[in-house]
Amino acid sequence: MRIQLLVLMLGLLAFGCNKTPWTSVKPVPVDPSKSNPEKDLADLNDAVRGYGMTKFKKPDTLEDLVKAGLIERLPVAPVGKKYILDDKKNSALLVDQ
């Protein structure tokens, strides 16, 4: 029974999401003039999903995504904003500082 449940869970993880796979996450630019907050946020959220799929847990911080190799570095937020990890939704958000 446990093996069947494990196979089912792995199948759901592998095929249950039609969104961009975490392996397609591109490195986030460092230069703020080349920064695109919408794309950066999408890349961060892809990395958050990828972290969950590979580590089977939620990241504690956005820095965990870098440590896991899912993104090269954290993106530079626009002036007056910052990226945070929303634990309830298991996603990254761009909020006012």
Characterization of this structure:
With 97 residues, the protein is an alpha+beta fold. The chain has one domain (18-96). Helices cover 39% and strands 12% of the residues. The protein is built from three helices and two strands, in the order αααββ. A two-stranded antiparallel ribbon has the order 1-2. A hairpin with a 4-residue loop joins β1 and β2 (91-96). It is elongated, with a radius of gyration of 15 Å.
Order of helices and strands: HHHEE
First-to-last CA distance: 49 Å
Low-confidence stretches: none
**How many separate helices?**
3
Share of residues in strands: 5-15%
The structural class is: alpha+beta
Sheet with most strands: 2 strands, antiparallel
Q: How is the largest sheet built, in terms of strand order?
A: 1-2
DSSP strand count: 2
Shape descriptor: elongated
Residue-averaged pLDDT: 81
Radius of gyration: 15 Å
Tell me the count of domains.
1
How helical, in percent, are the residues? 25-40%
Tags for this model:
two-stranded antiparallel ribbon, alpha+beta, 12% strand, 2 strands, 97 residues
Helices and strands, with pairings:
Elements: H1 2-15, H2 37-55, H3 63-67, E1 81-86, E2 91-96
Antiparallel strand pairs: 1-2
